[in-house]
Specification:
This protein has a single domain, classed as Glycerol-3-phosphate (1)-acyltransferase, CATH 3.40.1130. Helices cover 43% and strands 17% of the residues. It contains eight helices and nine strands. The strands form two sheets. The chain has a seven-stranded mixed beta sheet with strand order 1-9-6-2-5-3-4, sandwiched between helices. A two-stranded antiparallel ribbon has the order 7-8.
Length: 244
């Protein structure tokens, strides 16, 4: 009986979470809380000159699915003009609403759902010359910290650079979910890094993609581990997958 009641309660809240008005309400709460954490914390950022240089022109900023929280206010303060790629499902739509408050627009879809449409829209955005893209190469379902090749196609077709971004903090809470989502607590030291731009030649052959993909994955994994190493011995696992 208890399991049945819990199941009904979970189903009720999942349904409630799908309502647009509830998503907006939660987005506003998260938005305020994130700014509170940001302004009560000490920041140690490197590579910001790259963010300012490419934040309003064709570029592809990539970050692991579990490392988005404290990147949002940094992007907002840098007055980045861009689009995020978000999943069409409830979580993706809720995240899109919050990121809109931080000044980012949304392209809905993923490599697993509407991949061709997302590719066309993303290429069109980059070709306009006024916007960047922001996406998680291991989202929306994993495997965690594995670089899917969607960003490579954007870069090859448009000439826009791929720029890895990450953050860690002194008071971390790694959630028990597939991406080990990192929540920074107030009064932390937040360390962030905007990596160097990586360009992919338009003449690059598809058979060379795996080598480039693995190189980018290694760069991003190293970036995350080096930032975490400053504050914690916890090491985020690769190859975790979201449960249905």
């Amino acid at each position: 009986m208890k399991k049945s009641v819990k199941k009904r309660i979970r189903k009720f809240f999942r349904t409630l979470y799908g309502w647009g008005v509830v998503q907006w309400f939660l987005a506003i709460i998260y938005y305020v809380l994130i700014w509170f954490v940001y302004f009560t914390s000490k920041k140690e950022m490197t590579g910001l000159e790259t963010l300012y240089k490419y934040g309003r022109k064709p570029a592809i900023f990539v970050f692991w699915h579990g490392r988005t929280m404290m990147l949002s206010p940094v992007i907002s303060l840098a007055r980045v003009r861009g689009y995020i790629i978000a999943d069409k499902r409830k979580d993706g739509r809720a995240i899109a609403k919050m990121e809109k408050l931080f000044g980012l627009r949304t392209i809905y879809g993923s490599s697993a759902s509407g991949g061709v449409s997302v590719l066309k829209k993303g290429v069109n955005v980059l070709n306009k010359g006024k916007f960047c893209l922001a996406l998680s190469p291991d989202g929306p379902n994993g495997p965690s910290m594995r670089f899917h090749d969607g960003a490579l196609y954007f870069a090859k077709m448009t000439g826009a650079p791929i720029i890895p971004v990450c953050y860690s903090c002194s008071r971390p809470w790694f959630q028990n979910r597939w991406d080990r989502y990192l929540i920074a607590k107030p009064f932390s030291v937040i360390a962030g890094e905007v990596g160097k731009p990586i360009f992919i030649d338009k003449k690059t052959k598809l058979e060379d993609f795996e080598k480039i993909r693995k190189s980018l994955e290694d760069i991003m994994v190293k970036q995350a581990y080096n930032l975490d190493k400053k504050f914690t011995s916890f090491k985020v696992e690769q190859d975790l997958i979201a449960e249905d």
